[in-house]
Design goal:
Largest sheet: 6 strands, antiparallel
Distance between the termini: 122 Å
Structural class: alpha+beta
Helix content: 40-55%
Number of domains: 3
Oligomer: single chain
Shape: elongated
Strand content: 15-25%
Number of strands: 19
């Protein structure tokens, strides 16, 4: 023991120089800061420069501080006989690996009992050999090499204390997992155990690396939603949950951005009663959700968007859509189907209903496809149709106003896997939705563009009566499932009637009457 203290004293006396301590602190701080910056930088060229700078400062820490300090760390371990030391090393190494597997099993059992995880999710562990050999395993090994060979010895060089070294190393380990809050906490706590073992036993790289890999796989699979799929850096925000709160604050829940399979099969109205029929199923967990949350909301044009310069569709939907009320529905446990009725008391012109699924103790997940209810009459007995945004690939190329008719020329088909053609064409006129006859036309260039001959006859031509008084953006399509959507107009020669056109047509009609 006296020899160990003497060796450590000699080391720190030789390096106990304020100037060397400051330089070592700067080198280590820059190394950690550059490593964290490399995680956040998305530009490949800039990231390569930052990684190169991080390697330079890590090399300085390794050569100037870590290698000389490794002798004092070895002296700290050599407090017992060699035989005891071998037994201690084997005992700690085996205990770390066994404890890691036991903790993973305990975590899976706990989350399963709380209905937060299903054994069916183990299929998500299937990764290609490239992912395992090139990404996951090398990343874990690299992290342990950097901490055990560079950061921990350098911190010991600066502090001279095992406790402070282990604590600071654990904090740094958690810091490198920003901005994932739970992952930062877990890595800091497990870092305290791993880094304390480094000072207790030799040959810790392999057992700690195995422990790191086992726990990373367990946490990433069992608690993936709570650690945001193990994401760090800016990609972590892609998995960041968001809040759904009604305008009056009566309902509030968190939504995790993991899309569930589901749809609304039909929305029908009988008098003042709306009937919804649909289904939702969690394919990852191979089970139906315990609850369906039906959120009625409307778009508020007065809400100012955060992104004023070309706001994205996601930004518009989250900030411009205002939830009004939430209805909870219990689906069929066997297949996730649900059906419910409710009275329609909404007098607003447009309402969008969004569906979310929730397991017994988890947060909600959005279900594929929103359902938009658009009223074409302000009366209580209003007509409602089901709109599925982005359900169709469609385009109105020509809208021509002639003397005796209005020609509507375009094309469209459903974006579903079967790519069904448009089943019905409708136009909005005088506040109502009117089906109109149309002729199918072959569109060779469209079929060639989408490489699908089943949509060859996706073109259509409709000749309408001018008395319909079409407004702009007044054409809708609907397929055999009843899904309806407004068709965008990309007119080559826009001839939508204006006030002047209406006046010209009225003058021509008056001349005909006088004749």
């Amino acid at each position: 023991m006296m020899d160990q203290k003497r060796q450590m004293s000699d080391l720190f006396q030789s390096t106990d120089n304020p100037k060397s301590i400051v330089i070592a602190s700067i080198d280590l701080a820059l190394s950690i800061a550059l490593l964290e910056s490399a995680i956040w930088i998305e530009t490949i060229a800039f990231r390569a420069v930052v990684i190169t700078a991080a390697i330079f400062f890590l090399s300085r820490c390794l050569i100037l501080y870590a290698i000389p300090t490794s002798k004092s760390i070895s002296a700290y371990r050599s407090t017992r006989s060699r035989a005891t030391k071998r037994r201690l090393t084997f005992s700690i190494a085996s205990s770390v690996v066994i404890a890691s597997f036991a903790l993973a099993i305990l975590m899976a059992t706990t989350f399963y009992c709380l209905d937060l995880w299903s054994p069916a999710q183990l299929q998500n562990l299937k990764r290609s050999a490239f992912d395992w050999l090139i990404v996951k395993i090398p990343t874990v090994i690299l992290q342990q090499l950097i901490f055990q060979l560079i950061i921990i010895p350098t911190l010991y060089f600066l502090t001279g204390s095992v406790r402070y070294t282990v604590a600071f190393a654990a904090i740094v380990f958690g810091f490198l997992h920003l901005p994932n809050p739970l992952l930062m906490l877990l890595t800091a706590l497990i870092g305290l155990v791993w880094f304390a073992i480094v000072f207790r036993s030799t040959k810790t790289l392999i057992p700690i690396t195995i422990s790191h890999l086992v726990l990373a796989l367990a946490v990433g699979n069992v608690a993936e939603e709570f650690v945001f799929d193990m994401r760090v850096g800016p990609v972590c925000f892609q998995k960041w949950p968001y809040k759904i709160t009604t305008a009056d604050g009566s309902a509030r829940f968190s939504v995790y951005p993991r899309l569930l399979f589901g749809n609304v099969e039909s929305v029908t109205q009988s008098g003042n009663q709306l009937e919804f029929i649909g289904s939702a199923f969690d394919r990852d967990r191979d089970k139906s959700p315990a609850e369906i949350l039906v959120v009625f909301g409307s778009f508020d044009p007065t809400v100012e968007l955060a992104s004023k310069n070309e706001p994205t569709l996601e930004t518009q939907e989250r900030e411009n859509w205002v939830p009004q009320r939430v209805i909870s529905v219990k689906p069929d446990p066997s297949d996730g189907s649900f059906q419910f009725q409710l009275a329609n008391n909404n007098r607003k012109l447009e309402t969008e209903i969004r569906l979310f699924a929730r397991h017994r103790n988890g947060w909600a997940y959005p279900i594929h496809g929103s359902t938009r209810l658009t009223s074409f009459s302000r009366q209580q007995s209003l007509e409602l149709v089901c709109l599925h945004p982005r359900e169709f690939e469609a385009n109105i190329g020509h809208l021509k106003i002639r003397k005796k008719r209005t020609d509507v020329i375009g094309w469209g088909f459903s974006l579903s896997s079967k790519k069904k053609l448009i089943n019905e064409l409708l136009v909005e006129s005088n506040g109502r939705l009117i089906p109109v006859p149309f002729e199918r036309r072959a569109r060779t260039e469209i079929a060639k563009t989408f490489n699908d001959q089943s949509i060859l006859n996706c073109g259509f031509v409709a000749r309408l009566d001018p008395s319909l008084n079409l407004s702009s953006d007044a054409v809708y399509v609907r397929n055999s499932l009843g899904m309806l959507e407004q068709i965008p107009q990309r007119l080559q020669h826009p001839t939508i009637p204006t006030d002047q056109t209406d006046q010209r047509l009225s003058k021509q009609q008056n001349k005909r009457k006088m004749r």
